[in-house]
């Protein structure tokens, strides 16, 4: 899961105040035990299987796995860094990597011999810090696609082929907006593109809401800003300036949130990160489509009575479709008292030996090519077509993949962008207000 709250952000900020105070070693750490934390319960069985393989190859070493929910995970990890009770190894997220690297709570992994060519494009390079040292070994990857209710699409006269070839622009929304409008139905049965449609009394929205999208918009507006050619930072990694003041970015955001004003997407007040996310709206039949990540494939396809299918993200003004390609990694904590064992475990996690095992569970796309192939085969065996997620990675001519913004002070950026985007979405604040927010973020980044 890549669900987001501000827990990680505020935790990292708190950590910055007391960094370097930790004493002692990792929780449960010993010379013959490696402690490992992850947050996704769906992936727990796969990594338990990897642990058995690792222990067989390394007699005398044991792996103790702890799975925590997303919010608890980051809260306890941050507390562990401060108290010296963090695990030896933990699943790391790119949104927190910059902060953790700056605070020097991660152990360099240069001696693991991680090669960019051994993993899907860009995944390994993302975990090299500003200082040139590696702090994460690639674990898995995900992209974003459009989940849709097959029955609703059929009732609207929209075919899978049509939904897979949609295009958009910030002026009139293109065929994408036309499709979303036609999928929208008010309480009297009028569709969004029909005379008499009541945007204030909608029964089924054409597209679910994922909230304001913070500063990355991964499963909200990023497929649109990405296909418009916009970049978060002035450099792909460790940039020195955010670009939320870009006219391109602001025009896309204005159009995107404008879908709610037209009644095609729910108002911000309908969204709740705990109880009413995109998938919840689809499951309840309140929305016909939703942009969401590959980590949610099993969730959507598991909805009873819902014929859920997927389509690629729409083609934008650049002539390409786009999706964020995010990837998790495994990191070793600097306070670990079993660094030798921890690094052996991380190296095993990053190898085909483990990643093909994980792939066979069909819950995530592992970072290596062999692991990805195993996952695709596992999904196919379940009758699930995942090409909407995999094709953009392979088809560089017609699709663009881009990373979550990698920079220092990412927690501060998130803390500033969350209310700014919600003000635009929920309160009608002009997109030009992002100029000031961007200046505030860049002032922090320049420190």
From TrEMBL:
Q: Where in the cell is it found?
A: Cell envelope
Print the keywords alphabetically: Signal, Sugar transport, Transport
Task: Check the UniProt entry and state the signal peptide residues, or none.
Answer: 1-24
| GO CC terms in record | cell envelope
Q: Does the keyword Signal apply?
A: yes
The family annotation for this protein states:
Belongs to the bacterial solute-binding protein 1 family.
Return the protein name: Multiple sugar transport system substrate-binding protein
Q: What species is given as this protein's source?
A: Streptomyces violarus
Taxonomy-wise, where does this protein's organism fall, top ranks first? Bacteria, Bacillati, Actinomycetota, Actinomycetes, Kitasatosporales
